[in-house]
Specification:
single chain, binds protoporphyrin IX containing FE, two-stranded antiparallel ribbon, mainly alpha
């Protein structure tokens, strides 16, 4: 079956597939980059560059997430491939949680970075202004939320990837191949 830009009831389309894999790769890369930032001292040379990259890429992820959610609301969703009502519910909750954790990870990152009122220079290309701080000790509170939410996101994404591999290799159904460009098993 030829692949289209839009989703069909049988499979994800090129737009959803590109957004899914691009964001997944970037998010997986952002996690160790964040831990590396945390290990840096103020006088390390990398302190001047790595946080800048982490924040700039993070803002790009925010833009991609907004596009992805808008695209999702105007697209048909492929039919869920599990059968029981309980499994359908679990898949729905897992996917909503992944979206929720992505949104909170990005917002808390923005709140850490702008707590002192400074705008975020995205690749020195354009600036995202700071909003007034909304909570006391915003940098520390948002930092704690950022750590736990990004850690939960990586753990849930790991379980999600294992579930996709189980469907592919054990159940031998189309769950993974319809999120890929290859048309095998579709
Ligand atoms: C899903 C995307 C992201 C992931 C997976 C991620 C991951 C992380 C991790 C694991 C840390 C280390 C936290 C710690 O050890 O306490 C961190 C730190 C940080 N992140 Fe992110 N991050 C993401 C998005 C963002 C965004 C969008 C921004 C800002 C626009 C941002 C700004 C920061 C800053 C400023 C720090 C340093 C905080 C500190 O040292 O206290 N992050 N990130
Ligand atoms: C940080 C990493 C990841 C995130 C945040 C993520 C997030 C998501 C989300 C939110 C969906 C639901 C899409 C929708 O219908 O709107 C989804 C679907 C999917 N993801 Fe991921 N994903 C990640 C990594 C992976 C990996 C590594 C794999 C495979 C090894 C994978 C396989 C799939 C598959 C097969 C689907 C379609 C599921 C279905 O049709 O029910 N994902 N992913």
């Amino acid at each position: 079956m030829a692949i289209t830009i839009k989703n069909t009831r049988a499979r994800y389309g090129l737009a959803a597939i590109s957004l899914h894999w691009l964001m997944a790769l970037i998010i997986i890369g952002m996690y160790p980059l964040g831990l590396y930032i945390d290990s840096l001292g103020y006088y390390d040379a990398a302190y001047k560059t790595v946080p800048h990259w982490h924040k700039s890429v993070g803002i790009m992820l925010m833009i991609l997430l907004v596009i992805r959610l808008l695209w999702r609301t105007i697209s048909v969703q492929p039919k869920v491939l599990v059968h029981s009502a309980v499994q359908k519910r679990v898949v729905k909750i897992a996917h909503s949680s992944l979206y929720f954790l992505m949104a909170v990870a990005l917002l808390s990152g923005y709140m850490i970075s702008t707590a002192d009122g400074r705008a975020i220079a995205v690749f020195n290309w354009f600036e995202i202004p700071a909003l007034p701080a909304v909570i006391d000790e915003q940098e520390d509170v948002a930092g704690l939320v950022h750590y736990w939410v990004t850690t939960s996101l990586i753990i849930l994404a790991g379980a999600h990837a294992l579930a996709a591999l189980k469907h592919h290799f054990i159940n031998k159904d189309k769950t993974l191949s319809r999120m890929l460009v290859s048309t095998s098993r579709t």
